[in-house]
Design brief:
The complex is a heterodimer of chains A (222) and B (803). By secondary structure, chain A is of the alpha/beta class. Chain A has seven helices and ten strands. In chain A, helix 6 links the parallel strand 7 and strand 8. In chain A, helix 3 packs across helix 4. The two termini of chain A are 18 Å apart. Chain B has 803 residues and is of the alpha+beta class. Chain B contains 25 helices and 25 strands. In chain B, the strands form four sheets. In chain B, strands 16, 17, 18, 19, 20, 21, 22 and 23 form an eight-stranded mixed beta sheet that branches. A six-stranded mixed beta barrel of chain B has the order 3-4-9-6-8-7. The two termini of chain B are 33 Å apart. The chains are: A alpha/beta (222), B alpha+beta (803). The structure holds adenosine-5'-diphosphate and magnesium ion (MG).
Amino acid sequence: MIQLRNITRYYASGSLNTYVLRRINLDIREGEFVCVMGPSGAGKSTLLNIIGMLDDASEGEYHFLDYNVHNLKEKQRSQLYKEYIGFVFQSYHLIDELTVYENLETPLLYKKVKSSQRKSMVCDTLDRFQIVGKKDLFPSQLSGGQQQLVGIARAIIAEPKLILADEPTGNLHSEEGKKIMELFTRLNEEGVTIIQATHSEQNASYSKRIIYLKDGWLVDNL
Amino acid sequence: MIKNYFKVALRNLIRHKSFSLINIAGLAVGMALCLMILVYIRYELSYDRFHKDADDIYRVILENNFFEHSDSLFLNIAPLPLAEAMKEDFPEISAVAQFGDEGQSLIRYQDKALFDNRVFYVEPSFFDVFSFPFLAGNPEVLEKPYRAVITRKTAQKIFGDDNPIGKSVRYGSVFDLEISGILDDIPINSHMNFDFLVSMETRRDYWHENVTGGGMISLRGVGDWGILSGKTYFKLRKDCDFNAFEKKFQSWIDGKYTEVKFMKFILQPMTDIHLQGRGGFELENNSDLRYVIFVSVMALLILVISIFNYMNLSTARSTSRMKEVGVRKILGAKRFGLIRQFLGESIFLTLFTLLLSVALVELGLPYFNDLVGIELDFNPLADVYQMSVLIGLALVVGLLAGVYPALFISSYKALDIMSGNPVGVNRKPSFFRNGLVLSQNVIAIGLIICTAVVYQQLTFIGGKDKGYETKNIIAVPARGFRMSKDLSSFTEKLLNHPGILDITRSLTYPFEEGGGATHIWYEGMNASDPTPFFVWTKVDYNFLDFYNIELLEGRNFSRDFPSDSKNAYLLNEAALKALGWETAVGKNFGICERDKGKVIGVIKDFHFNSLHESVQPLAVKLSSNELYSMSIKVEPDNLSNTLEYIRNTWKECSVVPFNYFMFEDRIAEMYRSEQNLKTIFTYTTIIALFLACLGLLGLASYTAERRTREIGIRKVFGATVTSLSLMLSRQYTKWVLLANMVAWPLAYYGMNRWLETYSYRIQLSWYIFVLSGAVALLIAVLTVAFQSIKSALTNPVEVLRHE
Ligand SMILES: Nc1ncnc2c1ncn2[C@@H]1O[C@H](COP(=O)(O)OP(=O)(O)O)[C@@H](O)[C@H]1O
Ligand SMILES: [Mg+2]
């Protein structure tokens, strides 16, 4: 599903280039549950952003499904990730002015899903995440764990093939974190490919494959 | 999707309540003021448009270029045979109306005697040119002598509910008129106003002469064409090109009117009269195009300020919606969709604001009308024009105000927004915002300066020593005494009253123009030379003393010189200049050859016409009759008692009803458009300042809100309230200071240009500039300081706990 070849990412700072990712080679097949680990500043987020097509690699090739992402234009890329990828963020990134229901509905609006179908999709998702009772609340009225639940629900509502989760439990206490991990496991069992970045060993234990990043190098591919 | 946008927009508004309130209130006030001014401008431009084919109607006026060195003088009067000749010689003309304005005349009906009837002598063709609809009768009734047509209001005033048709009224004490028609009331936006239209045949029959009535001037040696009398208006055929016609007319008139070279004929479109008509023999005090332009510019500036405000605040606020934009982008929003969302939001908000501003106009218009002394109405629902202006305005404002935030906020990459505080995200708008704050303050400061200058200039004109006393004078038009002894007993009785200090009489009041003399006679003149145009009047012995008019040379009229009552003249300074005389006393002079006499004194120029124009040559004669204008100087205390006494005394002596006005009020009336301008300017500037402050307040509160954390931390580390307030205020006061640098030269240039249009003007003084800048700065500092202190005072623990 994903092939990274010699992916390098650096930032120009003065005359020097600061390397964040160095010649990363990585293959991920459909249905995998991958965990990216490493200390803070190792480049985990950068890697996820490149995979999620929010960021460009400075060098190297990136193949996603049948597409050569490194050759695609911005527009085609956003078309691609809108279709196949869902994002989950450490700080949830829900729209504060929208209720849970409306937050879930928004990606469907951008995908131009018809109203009746949209309604049933949102209701199904609310059901599945057991947050029907919260559907009219605003994000600020939810706990962190509940907000992240909504964040994940929003990420999967449009039925993506790949979920990218950047420290999804970073702001949660361990009990809440465990729940989220169990949810990911279930989703993975249903066939969704998941890549999560974390530095918690406990979270990592849920995934089938762990990769380590250190100073931009892929250290060990277990 | 719209619903989704709408919900976010609305909840955002509610979440930032005070911010939204400032934003919306500012725009509403700005739009309301702009709307009001638009209504006013439309009213000014609507003059005389109610006539059918208004654009094809013109009048003939004369430009007197006798004084080559000074401004030319316009006379709204035309040669007597002109109307007839034009009708005959120009197939392009479909109708000509020649009429005479008799001014206010006494009309009596049964036991009623009413003075304030404006009478025109007209031909039936009056109605071929003008559209004043008949409620009863038709134009033909004016073919016969002793017939009159009156307006509905006049009918009501004289006859109450009775049918006036066929009834007879007495004109002065001269002849009877049969009321033969009723006209609908004249719209207020008409440059001509009358109560009675009397058939021209009446005049011809009674006076056995062929002039039109009203003012008359006869020029030396040009026969019938030298008699200037009445107004001449005409209507061109639809298919006729005015410019071509004008050329043809000029060469035609050159053939007709060969002798007097300093009179130039001008064809003026009727719709220009209200804003550009000025000079002698105008039908009404007209307004001034300059004022309309002025006010339009003000409206525009206010709108600009409020739009800038709105843009500024919206842009500031939009940065707090970065996260939403980032999320939307990741969820698949395209740039265009985001632009549409933010523009739509802005337009929706301005449409909503529009409703508010319409309500404000509805509330405010009565006050505005009161201030300006006119009757504007505002009824957008019934008026397609107003409606479309409104909606157009809201769309334009919404678009202008929304376009920047929309473009700027949609331009960031999702990743840049999501990854916290990327480079550049906050820089760009603050540069833009500061630019807006700068221009706003430039406008506000510029307006303060302009208001100060305009105020000074108009006060200068209004209060400028007109050269005569204006205070505590009651003016009583003194007509209707059967015998001259009635008049003298009236004055005697008045002078017995302790509240009455002095009385004088004259042919005209000092603010009136009096008669015109186009063929004066003077010592050493060359009979073939044209003579300067003089204005003349007749006065009583004590006129100069009463009105405090300064005598520069020679002496006043005096009973010690019996010859004064025959042929003695006082001339003003302008007269000396026109004649090229160094001194005048002892020289021979006459307002016509028949009236030859000696000049006994020279008086200081006083302004018998408006201060827009320079003073014309004036000759003053002593007389004992025709002194219809009585002036009574009174003690200011107990005015109503004195007035009651005058009224009662009048009743004993005169047969006509008592009529009076306060001299000062009439003068004020003459400067009403200046007064209006002053009022509009002052209020507009206050509002502009208010808006600019609102903008600063909004920005300051926004900054403070964004920096609460920083403020909290600084306080924990020992920053004082003062130092924090200073830190927060400095950022804005800097822009106000800079705005001064920009506003001063602009205002200086503009005001100099404006002042040049006045013959009498003030000097621009530097302190106005400094003071205006200081006022703006002070207000800005107070506004920002208020907000800054408020945020500097918040408890840091409180703030940081929420983080
Ligand atoms: N826009 C940027 N410009 C310069 N350096 C950056 C930028 N974004 C991230 N970095 C740097 O890249 C490195 C890796 O960041 P990141 O991928 O967020 O690490 P992680 O998620 O593993 O903590 C960090 O050292 C960070 O400072
Ligand atoms: Mg990270």
